[in-house]
Amino acid sequence: MDEYPAGSLDHSVPFLLTLGTSGDITYQSGLSAVLKEQAILIRSELPPLDSDQAHALLRYIQDRDASNLPCNGRDAPKKHRFRVRTAERSILLPPRRARLPDGIDMPSPTAVLHSPYSPLSPISPLYPDGLIDTQWIRKHQDLIPSVLLCFYTLVSDPTLATLNDNKVKTDVNNIRGLLSQSGYKTRLAVVLLSDKISPSGDHVQDRLESLRRGCGIDAKSLFLVPPGDSKEELERMAENMLTTLYTASLEYYRDLGRHSRKKRGRGVAPQPTVPPTSGTSQTLSLAGWNVRYDFKSAIFAEYRQEMDVALRSYEQAYENLLSSELMEVIPSWSPRWNEARFLADVLAVRCLRCLLWNSQHSAAARRWQFHRERIADFLDRRGRGTGNYGWEAWESRWALIMANLIEKASIPDFAPATHKLYLQPEKSVMGERLQPWEFLHHTGYWYRLSAKHMQARRDFAHAIPEDDRRSPSMSPASFVAKSAFAYDTYMCPDPFEEYPLHQGGVDHGRFVVDRLMKARSEFLKREQVRLAAEVSLECARELGLAEEWSGIVKLLRPLWKDLPFRSEGWATIAELLSWNLRAAAVELDDAELVLTIDWELLNQTFQKRPNWEYDITKSLDDIDTESKPIVSIADGQVLPFISATFLFREEEGKAGQNVRTQLAIKSNAHQGSAPVSLSSLYLNFTGCLDRIVIQHEGGAAVQEKKGNTSIYAVQLMSDDAEAEFTDLGATSKSVILRGDADLTLSPGQTLVFNLDIPLREPGETEAQSLVVNLDTEEFDLHHELKFHQTPKTNFWYLSGSTTKRIVRPNPLAIKVLPRPPKLEVKCPVWKDQYYTDETINLEFELTNGEDIEALAKLDATLFGENPPAFTVDIEGHDSQTSSSVRSEESKLIGAPLGTIGSSKTLSIQLGIPPVDRSSQYDLTLKVTYFLPSNPGTPITQTAAFQLNIVNPFEANYDLLPRIHPDPWPSLFDADGVRSAAPDDDVPLAFKGLSQSWCLLTRYASFASEPLRVVDIDVVLSCLPSVRCHAIKHNNLPASGEGRLVEPKTIEEAAFELKAQKASLDERGPSPLDVSLVIKWSRPESSSGQVNSTRLPVPRFNLFGTEPRVLAKVEHVFVMERVVVVLTVFIENASNHLLTFGLTMEPSEDFAFSGAKETSLSLLPVQRRGVEYRLVPFDEEEEGRWVGVGLVVRDKYYQKLLRVVPGGEGVRGTKEGGLEVWVPGGRQREGDGGEEKEG
Amino acid sequence: MATTLPSIACLGVIGRNNNPLHISIFNSYDPSTTSFRPIRTPLQFSLLLSSTLDVFELRSRAHAATGTGLTGDFGLLHAVDERLAAYGFETNTGVKFVVVVDMRGRRASTTSGVVGEAEGKRSNAAGGGTTAGVGLREGEMRVVFKAMQAAYIRLMQNPFYDPDEHSPVSGPGKKITSRRFGEDMRRIGEGWVPGVASL
């Protein structure tokens, strides 16, 4: 807006002029010299007020100056808006009627003189056919106040009061007289400041009344400031005063507006005082006058803040101005042409302001565009067209004006915090087809637009031919004449000033940068960082043209460093930034920046610049450096042309072992760029791996090279020397592994390094970064590349052309397990089963597989149900016995094993005492040992064994009754029966009943292997009153070395039991406990250790008082025929006389002799036998069982007694019957005697 | 009378990580030479598309705060000047479509102005005799986005197209190289005129 004449575009605010006290800014009338001499002087005769109160009041009024307030209607609740100026003593008002200039006579005495600002007055620059100019606007804004506020003192001293009041009256009347003489209707107001405490209210009222009447002003224009009031009181009073004055002021402008409308309503064009004699002698047409009147009405409406009215009048003036009657008829060479254009601009700007005032934002944007189109169209048709620098200058200005207007309107929706980029259209245009630009955008966009047109202006300016760029004083007159009309110089310099041939001229670049920077700050305020970057780039281009290199670096470096163009893949933008920045950096000798940029630009992602030598070593050729630059590039700072991948071959490794790894670096540099010869690579790990350094060695042998891929097997040496590489922030580790390889990297080449890295400590380790170092004579460059997890890069180079995908989720990491124990615990002879009742001796061997001797300890634990205490025998140490901490655990802790030499073996004996029932135990041997090389780290080897202890044998038993061969003792034999009285000295003499039994056992081995059974015996235990002994019958060899019993085969052993009661009186049942004892040994046991397994036999009952019937047979051969002698014994152990009936039923199978039916009486304690002889009827080859129908009945109880087999050859049937064995003929031939079969 | 009509100057597809996936540039009518050529260089279009990301970010934040913008249609992102304006759409997977409209990219006489009649009235009302182009209604771009999304979905349906390759979890990915997608974009960009119902 600055380019327009001062005041032409300013918002019109009612003008208040104070008189009578001095402010900070002194009043300048600003009248031109011609008018000054005709001006009306209004002067106050009284001395100016100099009291503090007067100053305070004045300052308050000045502070309320509204000329710079935001131009919008929202703040309308303000009670007043004034533009305040201060004059101390006198003011100058422009003359109401301009005198005719010297040399021009009044044409007639009746001729009317006009205002000096009117095209009717010859002294006006508008004379005779101009429209209106800034002078008129300024007249009202700066020269003629709407309210003249005079400051006077109200003297309270009664002696001086009247005198002073009269002076004031005189002065005010004087001023009023001068004002009315001038013809202006400026409102006069008086403010009185009391100098002391007012004596009494009534008195003051009277004085005021007298003053008011004496001055001839109304009550609303006289104000009294009471003395000594507080600041708040003063402000309140001033506020009231201003509000009252504002009403008067609006009235003043309303009168003026009414006057203008009245003049327009006359409908005739007034005639100038003197008819024009020069030029075309043309006077302003009626249409022109209408524009003038409309414009005036609009301005006065604006003063009154009636923006709708103002807008209508402005629009009317605008349309009329651009109508066919006005601008269309002004010739383009005339100065009036540009004046009209200027007026159109002013009208358009004021229209825009009205629209913005009313929050019609889209209408404003449209109005802006409309004016532009209109003028462009007009210029194309009538003027010098739009293809020239003048037009672009105007366009640039027009955009800038809009930016200024929007700023001035201070639209709340455009506050940066709202982050709004444009405003939604107001309701009236909503739903219409809107141009996107008609959504009012924030000022950044407008500034940028202005800058763009400024650039276009420069382009046009630079296209001006040289002839036109010469100063007119140096050009032939014909050229001057020609070029005078060829260029549009509306508000811009002539071509020879715009772009002079030699130097100087308009500094377009500065304007562009200025506007772009403003735009940039607006964009940044609203977080439009990318757009701000774009603007910065444009700005940098301008700065580049102006060679302001440091400005470029300052502007672009943060963008280049921080903005995500690179990471988001906008390579072209990043590239543009880089090249711009590099150009500036070269000029500034910023070696670090140049190197970093060159390093990045090697990347093929960027477009290759033609005719550019891509060689990083030559980057600094044009740069002077004081010291050798060292550049450290962090990961992600640039888009590296080297990509690095790293893989662990295995997911897990163990400390002390080596792990295979592969490092691959690939160059993605431009084809044709110089190969980069890296000095070294640092491979860094997190966790517990050492740093690895691969150094360049030109002649290093390539393992394999195929195409663009070279594979190196790098031998790593550990290097204890503390290296100088700590500058890259790597932790200073004591051990660095070094290797050599050829690190020359040509474009497109891949270098693969196979590394065997020794793992030292357990833990998680991850490859973190690779530092690529390029050290040359001119500079050192370090670039850190972090390894990233991308499944696409997990390729292991098997050879130059084949790769294998490593499918682990994270091949960058390895889990290092603790150093594996190399001390082995073995049990050379371990059996699946151990048996109860044997002493288990386990032998373990500890073999030290470490390279050096180990100091070891042993922990042994036996875990299970009630584990036995065990003993451990260690060579060279005392045997130790375990202790039982808990019932299920038996433990031996920390048994020293001493030092086991390398690859030596120590044997341990572990003895477990016999266990009497089958069970399972877990045996854990934990050997903890230390190596002298690392005495702090215990190494643990654990071996676990499961000990199965099972019963080797199982058996079942039958106890069969037998007939005792001895006769029963007789009750009548007193000696034989009566036993001696119990006496300690004499052993008990057993004279009771005897019984004979046969214990038949069948046992089987449940072992997993054959066992040698050495002996089988029974252990009898019975009451002391019974004596019992057994005679064993088994099939074991008599030599005592036993017999191998295969697993799962059933063996038999029989025992003949004889039992006798001590006394005949005691015949009740008595229990017998029998245990079967099997003595056995393992067949391979050389020591001949015999274990005895004792199997408990269920308890038997012997004796009893119940009668018992036993049967036995004998086979007798009589005359080639077999005779079965069946003897039935009935035993009566009771105290009763019993009678039994015996019945032998005849059978078809045999004939028999003996009582078929008989009865048998038994005395108490008596046994009697009955014999039958049976003769089978038919002889057969095979022996057979023949049923015998023998029934024994207790006659008294009528109870059948079961006949129990009492020996071989008789058996009972299930139905309770009896069968006897009849041997066949064959057997008889073989044996020929008595036979026993079972 | 309007002598020019809006046309599409550029179509951009931007990935989840703000990475450019596809950029198609179209010719605009240049009245000074009466020829057709792109109004900006590819680099300038790149900058322009990139600048829309600012707007996407601002809007997404505003949408998140107010819980609006569920359709993904961001409407007008911003107008860079009186000619070029950018419209945006974001799919729910974060892929952004940007349409850069040249408000004077097409000669009115070459096309049957779909909206020419109504537009003429408006220009006349605004003062007549100007070369101001046809405006755009709210949601006028929806048809373009719909077509772009359809094309993008077709691309996604191609089993050889791996979206993760193009928008990896971090960092930029590949660009779209599908010839068919490019043809689709070309068809959409060249076929659109204001008021067209489907593409």
From TrEMBL, chain A:
It holds the Pfam family Gryzun. InterPro entries: Gryzun, TPC11. This is Gryzun, putative trafficking through golgi-domain-containing protein. Transmembrane segments: none annotated. Residues 261-282 are annotated as: Disordered. The lineage of its organism: Eukaryota, Fungi, Dikarya, Ascomycota, Pezizomycotina. PANTHER family: FOIE GRAS, TRAFFICKING PROTEIN PARTICLE COMPLEX SUBUNIT 11. Residues 336-603 form the Trafficking protein particle complex subunit domain. Residues 631-1223 form the Gryzun putative trafficking through Golgi domain. It comes from Apiosordaria backusii.
Automatic annotation (TrEMBL), chain B:
GO terms for cellular component: cytoplasm. It comes from the Eukaryota. GO terms for biological process: endoplasmic reticulum to Golgi vesicle-mediated transport. Residues 112-131 are annotated as: Disordered. Pfam families: Sedlin_N. This is Longin-like domain-containing protein.
